[in-house]
Amino acid sequence: MAGGDTGVIKAKKVFDTMTQRNVVTWNSRLAMYLRLGCVDEAQETFDVMPKRNGVSWTTMIAGCVHSGKSRHELALYHQMWRARVEVDEVTMVAILSACAELGDLETGRWIHSYVNKTFGSTNQLKLVSLNNAIIHMYASSGVIEEAYRVFKKMKRGSIVSWTTVITGLANHTGMVNEGRHYFKYMTQAYGIEPRIEHYGCFVDLLSRAGLQDEAYELIGTMFLKPNEAVWGALLGGCRIHRKLLWVIT
Hints:
Layout: H1 6-17, H2 23-35, H3 39-48, H4 54-66, H5 70-82, H6 89-102, H7 105-119, H8 124-140, H9 144-153, H10 159-170, H11 176-188, H12 196-208, H13 212-221, H14 228-241
Helix pairs in contact: 1-2, 2-3, 2-4, 3-4, 4-5, 4-6, 5-6, 6-7, 6-8, 7-8, 8-9, 8-10, 9-10, 10-11, 10-12, 11-12, 12-13, 12-14, 13-14
């Protein structure tokens, strides 16, 4: 057990002395282990649970995400599906994160299809986090056109939506015009002030496309102080295209 935490030991003793246990108490023990990063102990608990519900599966899957065990998470998801446990929004977001990390486009596409069939055009507010996860999954898998298509269909996006799509566009230099459009559109149409990560993504997009001068001019217009990521994006593009850029400070 991580660090021999006395709180965990006491909680385990209390649990062991309980004469009546239900799925709620088991889920509490499961969540406790995962909060402390004790994935092995959590898995052992999950395996011996006499009864599991949707919360049990979602807790275990989400815990694997935070612990960086994406392959194990996907395996749990397939077990969950075979057990015919209803998959909720939290579970789908977690699974999409694993798909993005592992590049599992097949599973990601299946979940995208499931979301479309389940929600259709209703409950758009609930779909924001799911759509963000879908965009991230496609962009991470190199299917930027599909990520872009999902983004354009969103009736309501969050700042995460904009960050994700601009980041994805930055990795595909043929979509400079789209990136330029959305960088301006987020401010003009939605009143969202670009954050340092947005500037970094857009500078990266321009630099990768060989537009170092435009990227440098953009940095000059920033109301934020450029950080290492912004300057690194500019220099990275210079290195790719073997260009020298005189920077006067």
